[in-house]
Amino acid sequence: MATRKLRIKVCGMKITENREQIEKLGVDLLGYIFYAPSKRFVGDTPDSGLFNTDKAKVGVFVNENAFEIMGLAKNMGFEYVQLHGKENPKTCGIIKSQGLKIIKAFNLNEKFKFSDTKAWEKVADCFLFDTKTSQPGGSGQKFDWKILEKYKGHKPFFLSGGIGPDDAKAIKAINHPKFTGVDLNSGFEDEPGLKNIEKLKQFIDELKK
After folding, report:
1. Is residue 75 within 8 Å of 109, Cβ to Cβ?
2. Distance CA 92, CA 141 (A)
3. How far apart are CA 174 and CA 164, in angstroms?
4. Domains within the chain, CATH numbers bracketed
5. Which pTM value belongs to this model?
6. Residue 93: which of 123, 61, 59 has the closest Cα?
7. Which pairs count as long-range contacts for 23-30, CB under 8 Å and 24+ apart, including other chains?
8. Dist. CA 203–CA 209, nearest whole Å
């Protein structure tokens, strides 16, 4: 893993000044959550400066209407749409037809069947493997990363779910050919939506060694 450059996605952007600090750390993607029950929901009237970045932007949605997603993606200049609910491949295909890249999230535990990802192979650009909990994302809980060895699919994947400042060494040891990046969120926060810049910097520096 030392020779592989993992992509770094920081999710839950909510505060413009915090986002400006984060993008200086060498991250690749910034995630914006459009799911009202989330503590990291961008809000009904987010600061327009929140989206003013040259980094690749990811709109995160849960069971949202495809046309609502496409409208927001166009207005906010999203490159990626992350689907974190019970969307179907047909919905995914409609969104992808507008030139958007698709990240499809799956919630994993020891009972997860990776065969469930096959229907998405043709429409998703990559997968995101998160921890199965009662609510979508941001739980701060890990799943057993050994489960990833069972994934034999063709799409690259991001690792999510409870990644924290002390996990860089363990992540670098994951030797899966489709492992493309990490999704960082609650494990690096001082409060929901406010990332600790020093913790992020230390982790990213360690990951890139």
Report:
1. no
2. 27
3. 15
4. 7-207 (3.20.20.70)
5. 0.94
6. 123
7. 23/53, 23/54, 23/55, 25/197, 25/200, 25/201, 25/204, 26/204, 26/208, 27/55, 27/204, 28/55, 28/56, 28/181, 29/55, 29/56, 29/57, 29/58, 29/80, 29/181, 30/55, 30/56, 30/57, 30/58
8. 10
Q: Which residue has the tokens 């997860």?
A: 112
**How far is residue 54 from each of residues 12, 27, 89, 184, measured CA to CA in Å?**
17, 11, 29, 19
Contact 182, 162 (CB under 8 A): no
pLDDT, tens digit, 9 for 90 and up, residues 115-149: 999 999 999 999 999 998 766 555 568 999 999 99
At 182, the amino acid letter reads: V
Contact 78, 72 (CB under 8 A): yes
